């Protein structure tokens, strides 16, 4: 099982989420933790993470079977699962 931030499936929702991520999260990180760069990096690393289907294929290529995923909150996060016996 792997819970990761992911990519929204709706382009409009993804655009709104990107605006929130890049315009709100780093300033809040600065305000609350004094760490703008760490929260900027977090947002950027989430965007670089593979999309759900690509990550599923990567897990399968690593030798896992019955690989699946479930999007939560419109795809903001997803849970991938697979089995290796």
TrEMBL record:
Transmembrane segments: none annotated. GO terms for molecular function: methyltransferase activity. InterPro entries: SAM-dependent_MTases_sf (IPR029063), UbiE/COQ5_MeTrFase (IPR004033). It holds the Pfam family Ubie_methyltran. GO terms for biological process: ubiquinone biosynthetic process. Gene3D superfamilies: Vaccinia Virus protein VP39. It comes from the Eukaryota. This is GD15899. It comes from Drosophila simulans. The lineage of its organism: Eukaryota, Metazoa, Ecdysozoa, Arthropoda, Hexapoda. The gene is Dsim\GD15899.
């Amino acid at each position: 099982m792997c819970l990761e931030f992911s990519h929204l499936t709706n382009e409009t929702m993804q655009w709104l989420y990107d605006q929130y991520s890049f315009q709100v999260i780093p300033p809040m990180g600065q305000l609350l933790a004094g760490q703008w760069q760490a929260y900027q990096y977090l947002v950027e690393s989430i965007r670089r993470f593979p999309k759900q289907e690509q990550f599923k294929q990567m897990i399968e290529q690593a030798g896992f079977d019955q690989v699946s995923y479930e999007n939560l909150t419109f795809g903001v996060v997803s849970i991938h699962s697979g089995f290796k016996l």
